[in-house]
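This entry is listed below:
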Amino acid sequence: MNHETDFATGTYSDEPRLPLLTPTEAHETIELLQVLEQLDPDRHGQAAGQLAADLARRLPSP
């Protein structure tokens, strides 16, 4: 298979697709990222905090 020229083909169900994350899962993910940020003593957790903030801005209020 040549990955540069061949395209994936297949059939897809007509049923509605689920979102990548449900709103509940997204809120839980944000909480876990915030905990991860707090637990990192080497300040690498800032990336987790930034990701949590970016994700939180995209979600409607609970």
